[in-house]
Amino acid sequence: MLERLRRDVGRRAVRLGLLAQAAAQHAGAGPDLAGAPSVETAFGKLFVHERDEVVSPRLQSSGAWEPGETALFVERLRPGMTFLDVGAHIGYFSVLAGRLVGPSGLVLAFEPHPRNFELLLANVWRNGLGNVVCFPWAVSDVCGFAPLYVAPLNTGDHQLVAPESGRETVQVRTVSLDAIPAIRPPVDVVKVDVQGAEEAALRGMERLLEASRDPLVVVEYWPTGLRRYGRGGNGLVDYVRSLGFRLRVQDPEQPGVREPGAGELKRLDEREGDEFWTNLVLTRPR
Do the domain assignments include residue 161? Predict the structure, then answer.
């Protein structure tokens, strides 16, 4: 009973502080929605990009994105939980989580790209989710500034390491979540999808995860992107196992979570091609 009360009071204090911070930062700077199409999903209406060849067309045609991952969050998230959306894009998973955790829960959404962030804010406001707080930051293992390399045709593929020459850049703030006193444990569910920077993001929240009793962490596993950071998929796998996590595999398009086969992740890490990715689902051994 006391533990439940402590969690509730702590979350409310953090929520009020973060809401005040977000309101002060963005007061009077509402997003420009001119030309933004709208789609209907199972949990609310979303503005999407007017120019995008990947995520927005999929949402417009089906009303859903990565249904396997969506089903996992629907199964796990409950009222009162805290959800971190690291690489929130336009807020598909943030809005979903905001509905599922309810007014007693909290969603912290991080998205550094300016237009993505505008649509993220608009979608949170449009759905009346006062429990979702948005930040225009790239989550990493250091606090500072870095160029974000902007993909011209895929609004979900902006990266902190240049994938090829010729991409335009925008300067963004990078943050380590462990360095932000207002973001406190426990967190219940974490989604990390940052185009190859997943290990850096996890390193920057290591203490937060350690202090959370039983977090579920869903991490995109994209070997091509991970190799651009110098460690590759095997480096990410070794790192999360060093933290004591049990590691399973989840196809973003299919429901269910499974144990990886013998040598499967090593083979996946050696696979070439930008088109391949999957999710790693991390939990504490019981």
Answer: no
Read off the CATH number of the domain in which 102 is found.
3.40.50.150
Backbone angles phi, psi at 5, to 5 degrees: -65, -40
Q: Domain of 205?
A: 2-137+181-283
Q: How many structural domains are present in the chain?
A: 1
Q: Is 170 among the domain residues?
A: no
Sign, CA torsion 34/167/172/209: positive
Query: What distance in Å separates the CA atoms of residue 36 and residue 91, rounded to the nearest whole number?
Result: 14
**pLDDT per position as a tens digit, 215-242:** 999 999 988 888 888 778 889 999 999 9
**Three-class DSSP category at 24:** helix
Tell whether pTM > 0.70: yes
Report the half-sphere exposure of 145 (CA within 13 A, side-chain side): 4
